[in-house]
Amino acid sequence: MKNEEAKFVLHAYRPNGADAGDATFCAALEQVKQDPALEKWFGAQQAFDRAMCAKLGSVTPPESLRASILAGAKVSQDAPRSGHSWWRSPVPMAAAAIALFLAAGVAFWPASVSAEQIAAFAISDTMHQSHEGGHGENAAEFQAALSQANRRLGGGVPVDFATLRANGCRTIRFDGHDLLEVCFKRDGKWFHCYVARAKDFPSLAARLSPTFTDKEGASAAAWSDGQHIFVVASKAGREAIQRLI
């Protein structure tokens, strides 16, 4: 795949990570990893898309908008016909412009993240990204806690998110928010634990019970303890992850 082809495909890649597990983007994402210039472009494009979503998401349509559009349409219908086209009249033009802007806003409006989306993102990161870094003292303590043979992760793991982020944990972005990632080992198998703050994904955290996802030859489980959202991904398979939870 050439860079121009990859760019064409990646223009459709949503900035909230919802497409991380979509096979449509696999070849283009692989090209991003192999070409520094394309990687730089993709990072800038995703930053722009996130900013656009944030701006459009902050727009609150005025309460009078519907009435104004209907009034403009009525003026257009009642006006005597002449040789002038409708779009030369300022009222219908304004109404059409507002409607078009709102339609664009709906198209870019960031949707609520699902358990499957965050799990697919974790699997994609596990399978395709480098996991260098994240070896500070606090990360090592968290890794040790995850590696304890008898610890059931579904029962909760002590997490100081701010300290881990500031002092060693690998940090990645998903849907505009930070996720921490730590690798750990159980029974000779490697797992990747991703942690997000529940307040960053409140609708997901409120309804999330252990949910399993299988993609790309790997599996992941996502759950919440009320304060944090946890995702564990591994090539070891679903049964191996179930034994941890």
Describe the structure.
The protein has 245 residues and is of the alpha+beta class. It folds into 3 domains: 3-57, no CATH class; 65-108, no CATH class; 115-244, no CATH class. It has 10 helices and 6 strands, in the order ααααααααβββαβββα. It has helices at residues 3-10, 26-34, 36-57, 65-78, 90-108, 115-128, 137-147, 161-166, 202-207, 238-244, and strands at residues 170-174, 177-186, 189-197, 211-215, 218-224, 228-234. Strands 1-2-3-6-5-4 form a 6-stranded antiparallel sheet, sandwiched between helices. Helix 2 (26-34) crosses helix 3. The chain is globular. Mean pLDDT is 81; it is low at 105-110.
Question: How is the topology of this model organized?
Answer:
Elements: H1 3-10, H2 26-34, H3 36-57, H4 65-78, H5 90-108, H6 115-128, H7 137-147, H8 161-166, E1 170-174, E2 177-186, E3 189-197, H9 202-207, E4 211-215, E5 218-224, E6 228-234, H10 238-244
**How many domains comprise the coordinates?**
3
What amount of the residues lies in strands? 15-25%
Helix/strand order: HHHHHHHHEEEHEEEH
How much is the average pLDDT? 81
Biggest sheet record: 6 strands, antiparallel
Please tag this protein with its features.
single chain, alpha+beta, 6-stranded antiparallel β-sheet, globular
